[in-house]
């Protein structure tokens, strides 16, 4: 019996082969990312009729658009004629989408406008690009690739009840986006976010700014929340760090209305695309907000190195899985949810 098995009360993390195995990655794609609500974007990206953006998740390309009646739509970016990708730009404003293969054209809601050589647009299931479930919550656009998925507000009842206390959320605008390809499994990046045991060592500025002696972690259905007050501020003013199942984080800092979202998009077993978006209330980013962005970016930079270092360790023979410290219960909570989804 190993020493570890003798230690009472120790709980093991997910086995780390699940962070490198292509088969597990594919299974997660099907059981997690093709079934969960995922943040696709924000209404401030498509303010005018005809505005659209494309979004890739779990190997699927989607178009999110605002049609001529102002309605927001989501559909697969796939031509129903022969399967070609229709829209190749990341964002824009159009009256019509056109497939570059045989020239079929589509309205902004994904419905067929014209198919050359056909004398009708009534082509059954080929009459539109396949629609995707979409819900807007606090101006954030969520999609779900499972047609049978429960409504967003039902899946995230507790989360929405909690976030609704921020009266400014719906009026925020997405002001900046940055992306970073991380050489690590998506779960490793989430793991890193879900504990602050590493903060005193890895994040000196963060540790100075927040009162880590009073760092709290609450667990809820489909989300967890870490929160702490500023060391030299009002104890009422707390930063809140939400993790939302499966791959999204929302941070809200003290001060004028703000939010940052992070999405960890799985690309390969050892590759993830992290998309960071900053939302503020005004048309221009103030000096104070620039400072906040700088602060958040620095903490992230410090984490990238750690997570990429960890991913290398996942392949060693010497180590199969880790253990949770008593303050890593949000990590434990996340792993339980992964296990549940993968059953
Ligand atoms: S594949 Fe799109 S028009 Fe033929
Ligand atoms: Fe960190």
Automatic annotation (TrEMBL):
CDD domains: Rieske_RO_Alpha_N. It comes from the Bacteria. The keyword Ribosomal protein does not apply. Residues 37-143 form the Rieske domain. SUPFAM superfamilies: Bet v1-like (SSF55961), ISP domain (SSF50022). Keywords: 2Fe-2S, Iron, Iron-sulfur, Metal-binding, NAD, Oxidoreductase. Its cofactor is Fe cation. Pfam families: Rieske, Ring_hydroxyl_A. The keyword Oxidoreductase applies. PANTHER family: CHOLINE MONOOXYGENASE, CHLOROPLASTIC (PTHR43756). This is SRPBCC family protein.
